[in-house]
Structures are given as C-alpha cells and as structure tokens.
C-alpha cells in the first residue's frame, strides 16, 4: 500500500530510489508529493500543497525556497560530503589543464590528423615547446571555505606538495579536525588571498556571499594568481573578474558556471556544472537523500536538515501514535503541548525536543490513538507551525 508519494526532479541515481519499499510511489510527474528528491532544479515549495520534506541530493540549497519551507513546516535536507570527492577530483585536473596547456596540446594533436604519418613525430617534437607549462607542486593554494569540499581540497594540495592556506569564518570543528596539520588556517581572508597562486572557492551562495569576489577581493590576491570557482556562479562578480583578466592581475579564471562573457574570454576554462557529476557521487547523494527522507516520513527523525534541528528517536514497540509538533522556537511550547495532552488524559511514553533557534521540533510517543480534536487544539496555538500524527504498526 502506498503511504508516501515521492517526486523526483532531475536525474536521481537509482541506487537510492531502489531503497524505497512498497509504501512509496516514485514518480517524476507527481504534482502533489509528500516528499521530493532534487538536484539543481529550482523548487518553490508553494507549488506542492502536501509537501512534508525535500531532500537535495547534493550540497547547495540555493535552488530551493528554504525560508518559505521553514514557515510552512517543510523539512529540507541536503547530503553533506556525498559529492565532495567528485568536486576535488575535478578541480585539481582543471588547474593542471591550465598550468600545463593541456587543452591547447590536445587541440594541436587533433590538428595533426591529416599530416602524413611519417611527419607527425617531427611536428610533435619541433612544436611541443609552445605548450610548456608549470607544475602544481610548489605552488601555493588558497582555499576559501573549509567545509566538506574545502578540507578535502586543502588536504589534496598538501598531497600534491603544494603550500596550502585556508580561510572560513564559521569553521565546523568536525571539518577543521580533518585538516592536515600542514595546512595554515588564517584568521582573516586577506591572509589566505595574499599568499596564494591559486585561490579556490568552496562556500555557499547566500545573501552575504553573492558578489563577494569583487574588485576588492581580487585586489587582495597576488598579481598573476588563478581564480577557481566550483562553488556557485553568483559568488563571483563577473565584470570584476573579466577586468582583472584583461589587466593581467588574474592569470586565469576556471569555473563550473559558464556564461557567454566568461566562455568568450581567452583566459578562462569552464565546465558545464560538472563538479558532482560522477557515478559514485550521484549514487552517494541519492542513497543519502533517500535515507534522510524516508527516516523523516516514516518516523519524523531528522539528520542533515538545513532548516530543522537534528533529532532522532526510536519508538518503543508499544507505541501506537507518534505525534510530531513543529513550532516557532519560543518559550513555553513544551509546557503547552504537555498540558494539552495531559488535560485529555493522554499518557506520554517519550517526549523528545530539539530546537535550532528558529524551529522547535517535538517527537511525542503515545501508546494509544490520538483524537483529531486534540491535534486541532494544538494547532490553534499561533506558534505551532505544523503537526503530524504518524501511526506506527
Ligand atoms: N560544482 C558543483 O557541482 C558543486 C558545487 N558545490 C558548491 O560548493 C559549496 C560548498 O560545498 P560543501 O563544502 O559541501 O559545503 P559545506 O557546507 O560543507 O562547506 C561550506 C563552508 O563554507 C563556509 N563559508 C560560509 N560563508 C563563507 C564565507 N563568507 N567565506 C568563506 N567560507 C564561508 C562555511 O562555514 C562552511 O564551512 C556548496 O554550497 C555548493 O554551492 C557543492 C557540490 C558540488
Ligand atoms: O551539490 C551541489 O551543490 C552541486 O552543485 C551539484 O549539483 P548537481 O547535483 O550536480 O546538479
């Protein structure tokens, strides 16, 4: 029997979707789903009246109306780290392609297709000097954003015999502990920018970071440095970057977010948002997104939400009803919920609460059924955003 309808948007790897059992329907055409799994397409949660949760199979959630989702009690997940390796695995080769003139070298070889066979090797040896490059080893890498990707990139730089500096204004201890000791973490961004031959961006786009890489940012970089953007296009002020390429202050701009002006500039290399596009990463993201979504739909448990607090509770076998109360994070809500339930003689087996400063989330286990009238009474409180009754069998 179908309990939950899931809509997929974009190509979601089957490895994850296959984990969903018979209680789920999965349909890209579903227009009224309980859950959505999406990659980079835009999603406005207003379009889905019964939506309970959405899982972004990936890192960035700038394509989702997260604030509206919070107001409506819709939980938004992402999959931290699941595609981080894929990004790092592309950024280093792209730097190498620029530094070693590989793109031009490959084009040159292609141009030899019609040269008589006995002349090819002579052409190669006489003209290869034009493609001489420089090495990654010994260069200084500056990583802006030491999250899942930034930490792996910084460590990868050390493994490639680079000097590595990194900056993050809100570093998570988990990530910082994974950094190799050789990486220098600077307290100010300018101290990373001023040291680096190559600056790589690995931070989310949001109202604070949109346009962050402007003329001032670039002026703090070393003359002749290379800028790499595998984070998001709008973090970079394109006009400022193009001007710096023209003046020579930047040697090159390598980006996953092509625009006509960037593609047209001779000092750029672009890829079509390919950072996470590997078989491994797509499988990881799909499995993780589906796991998060199904734990939420079935039990109301939360891991890796970007707008709700993390919370997990395993129900006792005697529990019949799990009541979820999502409320604004204001004082007195636990007392309110327990009072309403107590007034109706409802015996609570377990009450778990977590909050994140915006949303309070309560998992209340009950050994009986729960009348709709009691739920209605809870919902009448203007600080209650949403409730769910999950029937456990
Ligand atoms: N090109 C692609 O296909 C992909 C792009 N991305 C992009 O990369 C971003 C980072 O991904 P993850 O490392 O997985 O995320 P993450 O959340 O683990 O790390 C992001 C880090 O950026 C830091 N940060 C926030 N504001 C900052 C600022 N103003 N300056 C410096 N650091 C700042 C945060 O404190 C955090 O440590 C994503 O938000 C997404 O936009 C992620 C995956 C694939
Ligand atoms: O995870 C991210 O933030 C990405 O940018 C990856 O996007 P994608 O899932 O490849 O469309």
Automatic annotation (TrEMBL):
Task: State its Enzyme Commission number(s).
Answer: 1.1.1.399, 1.1.1.95
Write the protein's name: D-3-phosphoglycerate dehydrogenase
The yes or no answer to whether the keyword NAD is present is yes
Give the protein family.
Belongs to the D-isomer specific 2-hydroxyacid dehydrogenase family.
Q: Which UniProt keywords apply?
A: NAD, Oxidoreductase
Q: Does the keyword Cytoplasm apply?
A: no
Pathway info: Amino-acid biosynthesis; L-serine biosynthesis; L-serine from 3-phospho-D-glycerate: step 1/3
What functional role does this protein have? Catalyzes the reversible oxidation of 3-phospho-D-glycerate to 3-phosphonooxypyruvate, the first step of the phosphorylated L-serine biosynthesis pathway. Also catalyzes the reversible oxidation of 2-hydroxyglutarate to 2-oxoglutarate.
**EC supergroup of this enzyme:** oxidoreductase
Pfam family, any one: 2-Hacid_dh
Q: Which SUPFAM superfamilies match?
A: ACT-like, Formate/glycerate dehydrogenase catalytic domain-like, NAD(P)-binding Rossmann-fold domains
Biological source species: Desulfotalea psychrophila
Check the record and name the PANTHER family matching this protein.
Answer: FORMATE DEHYDROGENASE 1, HYDROXYPYRUVATE REDUCTASE
ACT domain span: 322-392
Source domain of life is: Bacteria
Reaction(s) catalysed by this chain, per the record, are:
(2R)-3-phosphoglycerate + NAD(+) = 3-phosphooxypyruvate + NADH + H(+); (R)-2-hydroxyglutarate + NAD(+) = 2-oxoglutarate + NADH + H(+)
Leader sequence range is none
């Amino acid at each position: 029997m179908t309990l939950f309808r899931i809509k997929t948007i974009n190509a979601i790897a089957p490895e994850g979707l296959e984990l969903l059992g018979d209680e789920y329907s999965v349909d890209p055409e579903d227009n009224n789903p309980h859950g959505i799994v999406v990659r980079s397409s835009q999603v406005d949660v207003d379009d889905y009246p019964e939506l309970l949760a959405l899982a972004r199979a990936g890192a960035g959630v700038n394509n989702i109306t997260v604030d509206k989702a919070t107001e409506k009690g819709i939980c938004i997940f992402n999959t931290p780290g699941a595609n981080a390796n894929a990004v790092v695995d592309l950024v280093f080769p792209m730097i190498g392609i620029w530094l070693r003139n590989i793109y031009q070298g490959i084009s040159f070889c292609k141009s030899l297709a019609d040269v008589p066979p006995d002349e090819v090797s002579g052409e190669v040896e006489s003209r290869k000097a034009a493609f001489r490059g420089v090495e990654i080893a010994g260069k200084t890498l500056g990583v802006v954003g030491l999250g899942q990707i930034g930490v792996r990139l910084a460590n990868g730089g050390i493994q490639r015999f680079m000097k590595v500096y990194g900056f993050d204004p809100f570093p998570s201890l988990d990530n910082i502990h994974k950094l190799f000791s050789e990486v220098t973490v600077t307290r100010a961004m300018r101290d990373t920018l001023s040291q680096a031959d190559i600056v790589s961006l690995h931070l989310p786009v949001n109202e604070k970071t949109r346009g962050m890489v402007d003329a001032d940012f670039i002026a703090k970089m070393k003359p002749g440095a290379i800028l790499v953007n595998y984070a998001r296009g709008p973090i970079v002020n394109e006009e400022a970057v193009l001007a710096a390429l023209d003046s020579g202050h930047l040697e090159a701009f390598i980006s996953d977010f092509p625009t006509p002006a960037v593609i047209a500039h001779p000092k750029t290399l672009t890829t079509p948002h390919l950072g996470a596009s590997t078989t491994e990463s797509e499988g990881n993201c799909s499995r993780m997104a589906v796991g998060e979504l199904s734990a939420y739909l079935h039990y109301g448990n939360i891991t890796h939400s970007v707008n709700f607090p993390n919370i997990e509770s395993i129900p006792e076998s005697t529990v019949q009803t799990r009541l979820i109360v999502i409320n604004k994070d204001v004082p007195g809500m636990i007392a309110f919920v327990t009072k309403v339930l107590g007034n109706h003689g409802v015996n609570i087996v377990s009450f778990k609460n977590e909050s994140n400063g915006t949303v309070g989330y309560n998992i209340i286990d009950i050994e009986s059924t729960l009348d709709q009238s009691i739920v209605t009474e809870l919902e009448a409180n203007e600080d209650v955003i949403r409730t769910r009754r999950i029937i456990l069998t």
